[in-house]
Each structure stands twice: as C-alpha cells, then as structure tokens.
C-alpha cells in the first residue's frame, strides 16, 4: 500500500480530537487535530530540508532549529536510552519559496505534521516561506516536554496535524527606551519572548522628551540628550537589534515622534526648541527642524528596513508656539493658527519619510484632527479609545489597534482577560473595511519600566493579546475561564525558558502571593 | 594568582575596569596603569536560594550563579526542600520527588550535577541543605510513614528507624553530587507538637524518658553523625545552638538568622559561625534598604582575633514565599551586592567610604552594569526592594 495512503488510514483509524483543553498550544493554531499516542524525540534529532526550494543560506532555519532543541531540553540532560519504537528522529522542513527577506505581510503560514507511522519517523513542516517554518518550529517546541521519569523528550497525543496562519499580519509590542534606557540584552530577551507567542513587530519608541539615546550620524550631537554617557545605542547596536529580530521573524518598527514628545532633541541642538524656557513641541517655524528630521530618517533608512516608519504626532501641546515671538510671527505671516501648524508639521514630516521610501504610521490624533489631509497610505495608530478603528477604516485608511483601556501594559490594572477579549474588529462589519485593520499592538510604556521589571510587566498579558491577534475567531475562547489553565501553563513555559512572566492572578507584574505550583499562581 | 579561582576573581575585576566608548566604538581601560592586589576578608560569602516555596528553573539558577560571580559571592546555599515541595530526585528513595509541585517542577540528579559544575567553573561552591526534622512535610508525599501521622505531618517521625534510613539514603545520594565540604542540615523552627500528640511517638519518648526537647537534640545529633560519616562538616541553623549548643558536634558551623548578637556567643564557645541576621540580610524582607544591608557587620561584638577567625563569613537569604522566576533577580539585586562588598572588602576600606556619596555612586554604577549584563537588578534608591522605578530617569540616579 502506498505510504501516503497508509498514513491517511492511520489518521482515520485513530480519529481526531479537537477538545481545546487537551491542546496545550499558545497561541491556538488555526486547525489542530491530534491522536492519543506518545512519541519521543531523539537525543540526536536532526533537521533536514528535503524538498525545499529554500537553501537556508543565512542559516535562519539551522540556528532556529538549534535554539528549539535547547528550549525543549531546558537545560536538562535528555540522556535516557532511546526507545526502539515511537522515536522521532528529526524534523523535515519544506520551504517552498526562496524568499529570505522579512517584510510586511510575508506569508507566515505553515503545516506541521507529527505522524506515528513512517520509517524513519520524523515530523514534517511545510511552509511557503522560512518565516512560516520558524512559527512551525515554535509550535513543535510546545508539543514537546522533558520527561523526568524517562529523561527523554516526550511528545504526547500524536499524531498531530496542524495547519496554521495568522489572522492579522501586524502583531506588535511597543517598547520605550526613552523613559528608561533598556540595555541590549534586555531588548534581545524581549524579542526572544515575542517569538514564543508569535508576535512579529517590535515597535521601538526610541526617543521622547526625557532622553535621546540613539546615535544619529547626520546630527551627532542629538545623543547628547541621552541620560548618560553609557545609556546609548550606537548605529551598529541598532543594526544588531534589527538583524537579531529578523533572524527570528520579527520586524522592527522605528518611531521618531514629532513634533511633540521631542524635548530631548534640544540638548544637542537648542535651536530646535521654540525657546530656552519653552522647549516643546519642536520649532515649526525653523527649516533646521525639518533638516534634522530628514537627517534622522535618512540614517534610519540605512538601518530600519521595515516598510513602515512611525512618526508619532500624539499629544501636541502647541502653547509654546503661540507664546514664542518668532514663531507667533511665522504663524501670522503664513496665515496659520496652531492647528494649521500642527497639521503642516505632520504632513511635512510625512513627506520626508515617504521620500526615504517609507510608508508612514501616525498616532490617532493626526487622524482625529485632519484625517482627510493625511497621506492616503498612512496607517493610523489608535490608542485613545475603543471606537476609533471603525472611523479610520470607514475613511479608507489602514489602522493598528492599541486602545489604552485594554492594551496598554503600563496600566497595571488592565487584566489578562481584558487583553484577551479586546477585539480589533469590534464595530466593523464590512469585510473590505475589516481588511484595513492590519492588526494591533500592546504598548509597554517606560515611565516605571526598566531592565528590572519589564519582563514581568509584559508577560503574560501580552501573550493573551498575541492569541487574539494570531488565532482565528473560532479558536479564541469566548469565556476566558476556558483559556485560563492553558495560559497559565504557557506562563510556566515562559518561566522555564527563563522569561520572568508574572503570575496570572492579580494585577500586572504582581509578585506571587504565596508558595505554590507555578500553574496555580 | 595562587589558584585559578583567584585568577577568575581577577578577570571579573578587569572586566569592571573596561568601558565602552560610544564615540570611538572601542572598549577602553581608563586611568591606567592599575595595580590591584585583592583578596576576600571572609572565605564564605553566600547567597541562599529557596526552590521549595517556588520551583526555580535551571536556567534561572544559572543566571543567579552568573550574577553572583559579578560581585564575587562564592557559596550558593541551595535550600532545596521544605514543607511545600520536594523537587529533587533521590535515587535511593525515588518516591520522594512525588512531593514536587508538579511533574515538571523537578530537578534530576543530572540537573543538580550540572548546577554544581556550572557554579564551579565560576568559582562558586554549592552548599546543599536538607532541613530536618522540621520544614520537611513534603517528604511524606512519597513516604507517608515519615509523618508522625496522616493528620499530623511534621516534624519527621523521630521514633522511626525508617526516618533515619531515608536521611541516610538522601545524604548518600547527595554525597555523589555535592563535593563542598559543608552540608546544611537545617534544624530550625521545630514544632514538636505532633510528637507529643501522636501515640506511638509519645510512647517512644516515654520509653526513653525523653522530653520533646531531648528528642529534638537526639534527632539533630543523629543526623549530624550521618553527615559526618560521609565526610561532611555539618551546618545547622542557630536554634540548635541556642537549645543545646554544648552538645553539638564540635565541627558544627552554626548558621545565625534570628537576630544580631548570636555569632559572638557561638565563637565564644569555640564553634564556627555564619551570619544571616534576618533583620538585615534576609532578602525577602523587602523593607530593608541597601544602606542597612551594607552596614551589617559579621564581626560585630567580637574583639578577640582568635574568635574572629571562627566567623566563616555571611550569607544573604532569598526565601521563596513570594519569589519565583518572575521576581527573584530583582529581589536579590542590588542589595546582595551591598552585602557582597561587606564580605569581600577590607574593613578599613569599607569604613573609609561615605555611604551617601562614594558607596552609593559605586553601587549605582554596579546596578547599571548588572542591567547591561542582563540581570534585572532593581533601582537602588527605592525604599522597598523590587519596586519599579518611580518615574523616567537615568539608571544612574534611580
């Protein structure tokens, strides 16, 4: 009998079981079916690429496979004697396209099969791109666990047939390195943890009023605005982060917030301030301001390869414009009030970004104030409230959802249940318009966040949002109580992997109340 | 250096002389030439981890070991087991780890060996603890006979030979894993009520004319003997000294924790001492700011130089009731570093410093260095430990 037919009969014979509670995966894949057999993963599991069009020249897969093996073993010595049967010898990965450049809307789908029949027995991954294969390896790593009695890596409930693809192409996490400097090791740790729940955009809010930590070769005094000499990122540091993320399938969205939230720029170039006593927003009347923005975006374009750049535009308090004589005069000469000037600033910055090849993302105030004047390719980043996305997509613009009442991680009283239930498409019924919501983002603002507490504030709540952004609606629990134990086990998996994810119970980043097993906290 | 472990300390110091120049993008050493001669004041500079109240994954323990090496701490006191859970594999009595919280919150024998060798490579000893007869409820999950009765589950049943067979088995298995010369046998907070209340134990006491206090002494001394037979020096918590100090094996090292003023009494009796006065060096006490940790002096109240030599050193203790993977590192650091300097540096050098200027500046720098190295050390100047930074700001002033 042909092997494929035998395989098919094996599946039919064992039957499929989709009871969500036996499936310990996070986020829940699009379709999952499994059986009841236990398999083991060989100590010397190998990766092969038979049938792949992709050659892994950058060793993206090879390194990911090694990382996955380390994650599965979690530092235990998996040195039990390999059983003679039910032993998975490795994973065969078939990647159908040669594309190895990460980008927006790259195909992230995959099929993962763990059969119980085959000689030699091996798992099979099929994906359009290497980035789909990376997600498949993550899922596979969650099927495996270290068995303390046999000292083997076990894989339960085989055979598995998983077909998966994300609901939204933009699944983001914002980090803020201006309110507190975050060392590179911290940022890399965040990137690794993002991949475990398949988040794929790191929104790097690099600069704000308090500090300017990044090197800008075109205007080298800008980083005099860093908190201190060593709380800085060089350009090679930024390139390192982008590469580190890209190898893991994570895009890096850089943000340069203008004209507000930019007081730190004037430490190196005081002429950017309206005056010495009135320091923000950036001086709209001064051409130099836009020269600097151009320099920054030009330097960015050599490092940040994501097709979007974020230009901010939020919380612009224009009083320093009216109070500073030379700006007041400029406004009069140009027949502008401050609202016009705000709009003028944002649009001029947009044009500069577009000239460097970027598409622009702006915070929602720009849309709320002059949505019809924004560049037509602008993506509006909602944050103020929960009813903005419908208006944005009705106007024909794309939208990213981050409503602060549910998806702001610095709000410690925002519960994981709230994160889980926040639906980006709420209030949008037209399917054309639904497509304009490219996804959502949880935001880790840094006022009270530094290297000492960032991980436990992000996790596990960001993971709850990660499932909302990845899994299809049918797979998302309607009652959070049915997701609690699965998220709890995922949190413990994060801990086992060295990620300081906080207990589920209580507010964000609480300490565990009392002694106890990880899953009950 | 005389040994490679001295050289390891030297490399750590050298690494702290190096700074990254953001303009030239080079690593530099400033203010050369440097001449540094260094050695620790105390030979025992410990940090205690509790993996019973919460399981700590091996990855986390490794990270703690790395961070210890940055401040030259050199003993990891592993309080493996307590009443809530028994996470370690004991081949002689394989049911013992049924007392773990769950099937995955466990350490295999290989895990333990790996931790020991990982620490050794960084010049750090691992001192294991098997706390008896109290703090041992979790043992009975696998072997209920160890409990006085099913309804009275601690301390361990002193009247049963089986109890000491199990202890012998545990210690023998551990001897193959933990080469450090000291082994901690606990002996703290022993509530003997269940011995009196359980008929067969009460009978055993009566037959020997023992009070529960006598039985406590009997238990501790018998456990000590098992350890000594295995070529270990026993360490015991201070209640054993306070209750029957004169009967303790003369090799015993007494581990102070209840309060100040204990080590002077211990060394006056000719026994060695480790200081962990809970008022200052218990890291789970979140209301002890770094200044109090720094100024605690292991030799306080001991003027005789011969007696001073009996104080092996000290230890900061990270009890695990509210510390798990999510918050253990920010509870340990930076306060443990304050204690680390107290235990390493010469007393004259420490006393010459001014807390609020020279020490604080250096501790700030060290905390930010820890952050750069991936260790989640909390802000220095918060009053309570492991709190977030109060607002935006530079690492060096928080």
Automatic annotation (TrEMBL), chain A:
Position of the signal peptide: 1-19
Residue ranges annotated for the Glycoside hydrolase family 20 catalytic domain, each copy included: 168-472
InterPro entries associated with the record: Beta_hexosaminidase_sua/sub, GH, Glyco_hydro_20_cat, Hex-like_dom2, HEX_eukaryotic_N
Keyword Isomerase: no
Keyword terms, alphabetized: Glycoprotein, Glycosidase, Hydrolase, Signal
Source species, domain of life: Eukaryota
Presence of the UniProt keyword Hydrolase in the record: yes
Molecular function GO labels: beta-N-acetylhexosaminidase activity
One GO-annotated biological process of the protein: glycosaminoglycan metabolic process
Stretches assigned to coiled coil: none
All residue ranges annotated as the Beta-hexosaminidase eukaryotic type N-terminal domain in the record: 25-143
Root EC class: hydrolase
EC number in record: 3.2.1.52
Catalytic site positions: 315
GO cellular component: membrane
Family from the record: Belongs to the glycosyl hydrolase 20 family.
Protein name (database record): Beta-hexosaminidase
Species assigned in the record: Aegilops tauschii subsp. strangulata
From TrEMBL, chain B:
InterPro entries: Beta_hexosaminidase_sua/sub, GH, Glyco_hydro_20_cat, Hex-like_dom2
Catalytic function, reaction form: Hydrolysis of terminal non-reducing N-acetyl-D-hexosamine residues in N-acetyl-beta-D-hexosaminides
Domain of life: Eukaryota
This protein's UniProt keywords: Glycoprotein, Glycosidase, Hydrolase, Signal
Domain Glycoside hydrolase family 20 catalytic: 42-346
Enzyme class per UniProt: hydrolase
A Gene Ontology biological process term: carbohydrate metabolic process
SUPFAM superfamilies recorded: (Trans)glycosidases (SSF51445), beta-N-acetylhexosaminidase-like domain (SSF55545)
Active site: 189
Keyword Glycoprotein: yes
EC number: 3.2.1.52
GO terms for MF: beta-N-acetylhexosaminidase activity
Recorded GO CC terms: membrane
Family: Belongs to the glycosyl hydrolase 20 family.
Name of the protein described by the UniProt record: beta-N-acetylhexosaminidase
